[in-house]
Specification:
The chain has about 170 residues and is of the alpha+beta class. Helix 4 links the parallel strand 4 and strand 5 (about 100-105). The protein has six helices and nine strands, in the order E-E-H-E-H-H-E-H-E-H-E-E-E-E-H. About 30% of the residues lie in helices and about 30% in strands.
Amino acid sequence: MIQVGEQIPDVTLQEFSEVEGNGCSIGPNPVKVRDAAKGKTIALFALPGAFTPTCSAKHVPGYVENYAQLKGKGVDEIWCVSVNDAFVMGAWAREQKTDGKIRMLADGSGEFAKAMGLTLDLTARGMGVRSQRYSVLVKDGKVASLNVEAPGKFEVSDAGTMLAQFAA
């Protein structure tokens, strides 16, 4: 598992874009993680799957609701990463009203989750290998804090915990 102080993985995620602009075409666009994180403070949270109960009812909404507070603490961007394809993440972004607040990034083959050392095998439940639920504060491409949930829990990867860590 990745540790505080280590560089985040050098992988490419996908982001669905509804509108053309700023070098992005409509549809899935590659996001080179290390390049996108360079010189920024990022509140990144990962979860097992789009449209799943806890992820949709608590995890994403908490970051949407706390967007202004996180920005006020110096967070440049908020990223949500899930082992889903970019089309699913785009549809989930619309449903969760994340536009302009959270970058919904697809880790379609689970390469980011594997490189982070934070996979979760849900094959027995018909979901394959997914990401564990966690949050990480990334500063200039390095892990500044890491909050990994115990299986089936939602206690430390929420936006409130990340906000509290800024005060600590």
